[in-house]
Amino acid sequence: MTIAAQPPGPVTASDSVALAELPREARLTETLIRAGGPFPYAKDGTTFGNRERLLPRRARGYYREYTVPTPGTSDRGVRRIVCGGAPAEQPEVCYYSDDHYASFRRIAR
After folding, report:
1. Do 56 and 95 contact (CB within 8 A), yes or no?
2. 89 classed as catalytic
């Protein structure tokens, strides 16, 4: 008997990860975010639309996305950090996705 996979739900308080537990590249990206860049990809810092509706609902423009480089890939890969709040260098909250927005974990600093 096969059990159908449940679609992912919104991020909950239990869906968190310590910054220190993230891959080195994610920690470096988080440092760049707080420094205001410079970012290696043109799409970094652009608005994240939350079309998947996995993050808490906020006004358009609240969330921004950043690439977390994946060693061995020639493109942006699937790893991202999405942060919300203003100013961008002092986000209220950040989330990590290692599966191109299929799931998120809140980053605990």
Report:
1. no
2. no
